[in-house]
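Dear V.,

Thank you for sending over the compound details. I've combined the ligand you provided, 2-acetamido-2-deoxy-beta-D-glucopyranose, with the protein sequence from our construct and run the structure prediction for the complex. I'm sharing the raw inputs here so there's no ambiguity about protonation or stereochemistry in the SMILES, which I know was a concern on your side last time.
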Amino acid sequence: MASKTRVFHSLILGLVVLSLIFYSVYNTSEPIQFNSSVYYIKQRDERSNTSSSVFKPISSAIVGPTEKLNNITNNSVSSSSAVDKAAVEPSSADKAVQELVDKAASEPVDKAPPEVVDKVVQELPRPAQVVQVIPPRKANSDGGKNLAKGVLTSRLYDAGHDIPNIELCPDLGASLQFLVLIMSAPTHAEARMAIRQTWGHYAQRKDIGMSFVLGRAKTPELTSSIQSESDLYGDIIGSRFMDSYDNLTLKTTSMMEWVDSYCPKVKFILKTDDDMFINIPKLISFVEARSKFKRTIFGRLAKKWRPIRKVSSKYYVSTQQYAPPVFPDFTTGPAYLLTGDIVHELYVKALNMTYLKLEDVFTTGVVAQAIKVKRVHANEFLNKRIAFSMCNLKKSISIHMVKYHEQFDLWKKLLDGRQKCG
Ligand SMILES: *[C@@H]1O[C@H](CO)[C@@H](O)[C@H](O)[C@H]1NC(C)=O
Ligand SMILES: *[C@@H]1O[C@H](CO)[C@@H](O)[C@H](O)[C@H]1NC(C)=O
Ligand SMILES: *[C@@H]1O[C@H](CO)[C@@H](O)[C@H](O)[C@H]1NC(C)=O
Ligand SMILES: *[C@@H]1O[C@H](CO)[C@@H](O)[C@H](O)[C@H]1NC(C)=O
Ligand SMILES: *[C@@H]1O[C@H](CO)[C@@H](O)[C@H](O)[C@H]1NC(C)=O
Ligand SMILES: *[C@@H]1O[C@H](CO)[C@@H](O)[C@H](O)[C@H]1NC(C)=O
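Below is the predicted structure of the protein with 2-acetamido-2-deoxy-beta-D-glucopyranose bound, written out as structure tokens.
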């Protein structure tokens, strides 16, 4: 009797398994996947009310959000942009540079002697070898030499986004405490993955938005892998310029355009990079304490830095690009927080100013000054590499020069809050 029951049970089990297999083979257009990535995207979709359909590129000049939204909704066929142009990706800084940066970033904020500038500016990633043949369409298509003559940013910038992913910002941002926009390069898939698996988890909160901002990739293969990554995670914003060091300022401009178009009601925006560790709980309390602030950029303030006039320098700034001997105070690029109310003006003004590839100087210095935005120093923005101790972590919002495999270590230390700090 018992064995009969067992046989019967096995038969039922077998049938169930068979029908499951049959179902998965014949009834789903997408393969069934049981890995954590898929779990992640499901979580996202549950929190967002919009469908996860792929949004199409829009060919637009500078237009208002509503018009864009209409066109996106109506567009049917995506025309992936030309990718036969090659460009350069920023490479991660080597050890020597890192030491310089550590040293330089620990200089006092209120005065930087001219010789420091050369070192500190190296905090920006260095471009790899240039291997490119680019049609002379844009004013900086010669790799940037032309820029020294002074070119309006609007002449370099193509408005719109190849990958808008507008569902990243529900209700135009009204329900978000803040948006974290992480500047990333197409080749940095590992850095993005490490962030998603560590501090990027806060994207699951309904009141926090997060996304990676990428320029165009230099090969069709990379372009399609970015598209797949976007389809899978829905957290990529694709801009319309070749991703390169000289184009970093275009990336920030594109970020501003995206927020202006799709997230204009967000209260704060953190602009950061994919080699950063961000202490989100600390950022939450930081913005909560500053909810009344208007027209402000918070970060690590760099005061009285001078443009480098040496033509051979990678950081050369001609007088046509910027005439005064000293830059306006600016917040350093690895991480800064802006109030949402200034994004539209920053974007519009940036387009009508002479392009500088030093994105932090340009955006948070020159442009911010022109529209009278306050820049406020906050010690929590370390923007440099520090010893990864839990107490250091707890004090800071942003730590720079974190390799993707180090994100896990930092994340674990932040979560494991047993140790008491003085
Ligand atoms: C999860 O599945 C996707 C799609 O098949 C794949 O690209 C990705 O590498 C997988 N991730 C893991 C962690 O297995
Ligand atoms: C989704 O959107 C519909 C229509 O806009 C709305 O009625 C509904 O309440 C929304 N659901 C959620 C969970 O936000
Ligand atoms: C929207 O689409 C119309 C018709 O296709 C086009 O004329 C217009 O320029 C588009 N506007 C934007 C902002 O893309
Ligand atoms: C898109 O659809 C909306 C609503 O149906 C309509 O008002 C708008 O004119 C359309 N836009 C274009 C470019 O066709
Ligand atoms: C920057 O982007 C523009 C526009 O896509 C492109 O023409 C130019 O070649 C890029 N610059 C570099 C150095 O790749
Ligand atoms: C751009 O700036 C110039 C002055 O620098 C001003 O005359 C012009 O109106 C501005 N254009 C726009 C579109 O804001």
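A first observation: The pocket of 2-acetamido-2-deoxy-beta-D-glucopyranose (ligand 1) is lined by residues 33, 35-37 (CB under 6 Å).

Warm regards,
I. M.
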